[in-house]
Every structure is written in C-alpha cells, then in structure tokens.
Amino acid sequence: MTESKVWRWGIMAPGTIARGFAAALRGLKRARFQAVASRSLVRAEAFAAEFGAEKAYGSYEEILADPTVDVVYISTQNPHHAELIRMALEADKHVLCEKPFTLNHTMAAELAELAQSRELFLMEAMWTRFHPVTRTVVEWIEEGKIGEVVHLIADFGFHGSVDLSSRVIDLSSGGGALLDVGVYCVSYASMLFGKQPRAVTSLTDQMPSGVDLTNSLVFDYGEGRQARLSSSVIHRLPNAAVIVGRRGIIEVPNFGHPHGATLRLFGQNQFDLSKVTEQIEHEDLVNGFEYEILEVMNCLDQGLTESPLLPMRETVAILETMDKLRADWGLRYPGE
Fold first, then answer.
1. Domain with CATH 3.40.50.720 in the chain
2. N or C: less crowded end of the chain, CB within 10 Å?
3. Under CATH, what is the fold of the domain 7-128?
C-alpha cells in the first residue's frame, strides 16, 4: 500500500470513549470516518451527524457487511469484545479493539490465530503504548540512559462511587479495577521489562461479587527486578509512573495519557539525584487517540497483520498474567 491511501474506518458502539476516537479520526487526513453502528439506529445517526460519518447503522451486522469499511474500532463493554472481534474478522475487516482486549487470554489467543489465518490486522487499543511521550521514554531506556530497568512504580485510579448499576463494578459487564484501569499498569510493565513476571503477589479489596475495587500488585522478574502496581475505581491515585534504572530514573506524570517525562541521573551520593538531565513536553495533535490510529494505518500501509509495538502475542501474555491474578482472587466473569 502507498502512504497516500485513505483508510475508511467504522466505529462499533458510539459510547463515551468512541467520542474521543471519532474526534481524532476527523483530525487525520488519511483517515475517513466511514460508518458508525449501534444497536440503536437513532443513536448511531446522532453520532454520525455530530462527527461526520457518512453512514449510520442500527446493527453491527450491517456495518460489517459494508464493503466501504476497511477497518473497525470496537468500543463496546468488555464482555462483547471477543464476539464482535470474531464477527469483524469473519467479515474480512481489520480490527482495533479497546482494552482490555478480551476477558481472558484464551479468547485473545483464539482471535489472534483467526486474524493470522485470514491475513487481517488485529491490535489492542492500548493508546498509551503508541503515544510520543511513551515512545521517547522507551528510546531513552533503549539508549541506556538510565541503565538496566530494575524497578517500576505505576498506579492508575479514579474516585468513583460504589454504584451497583455502574459497568465499572458490575460483574456481568466485566467490571473491576484490574480490567478497567489496572491493565494500563500491567501493559506498561510488560513494555519496560520486555516479558511477563515470573511471580506475582497481590492484595485486593473486593465486592461480594468478587469484582475488585482496588488492588496492589508486586511483579517479580528475577535478579531483584520488580514492579509495584496499583489500580482503583474508588480512589484517586497519582496516576504516575516512576521507572528506576541502575543509573537514574524517569518520571512520567499521568503515564496513561502523558504530556511529558523527566530523566534524572543518580548523583555521586547514593541518596541524591542530579538535576533534570533530559525532559520532554508534548501537546497532542488532537486528543491522544490519533497515535493508535496512525499506528494501525502505518501497519496496514506496510501489509502488516499486527503492530511491532504491541504484537498480539504480548496482548495474550498480558491477559494471561491478569488471569493468574484473578484466579488468586477467585474472580471469574460470566461467559468465561
């Protein structure tokens, strides 16, 4: 494919997160918002009118049957991801699906195999991984600026009420802190350490249904390398990452959607840090969603079926780590 190709996008489920995605599509020259689908035609038509989609459909089957749609973005509630990904792949559509990709790693592995067999692109929409600040942080580490990464502290939490009607804490909706926001921390650790932990330990505050409201995780990678991760859907946390290397640290405020990062080296005294050695500040082109969209289109231009920045085998491995945690907690979702 040539770089000038315009990729025609469809959105499946015009919810809150899809609004940001649609706004990003509208801000990219090589992306066309072709169609939107909802179980409510009225809702789809309103969304199309607001964000400039050419077509609106009242069912997912209709958008998948549309030959003018090249790639779909799936942003339904967690339990519906696997079914819709399968439907889209079987309709020969490339797929970008919101995090968590599926409820468990077995579902994800099966879909990855299906995508490969049909030579279709498939990726988890973990927008953090494609953000320019994140890519700069990875470059600093690869260049050895802080030495080998030995420790990570990362947390992601927001202050929400324990509203039993909220999908965030509803068992049947795939709710819980780990799947909703903890996945950002687990994915970040996977990116920095380049593998899954050899051992995990955790503490969690759970509802009677088993859904986790808050969790604290310790991942062990061997040779003293560890990650301490926390997530919550009832407590506002710093939402920051501190990456510790043998020579210095990198601080990333709001690491899930970062606007900057700071690198500091250790001083001669082991308890001292030098002044800022390097710093990056960033303003998004649109709102942050554009970077995962650009990654998909760049991969499609090259004829790739997955992203080298977040290959499906890593998405599957991350989910397997999360499965182990949930097994320890006795948390299992309907449909697993």
1. 7-128
2. N
3. Rossmann fold (3.40.50)
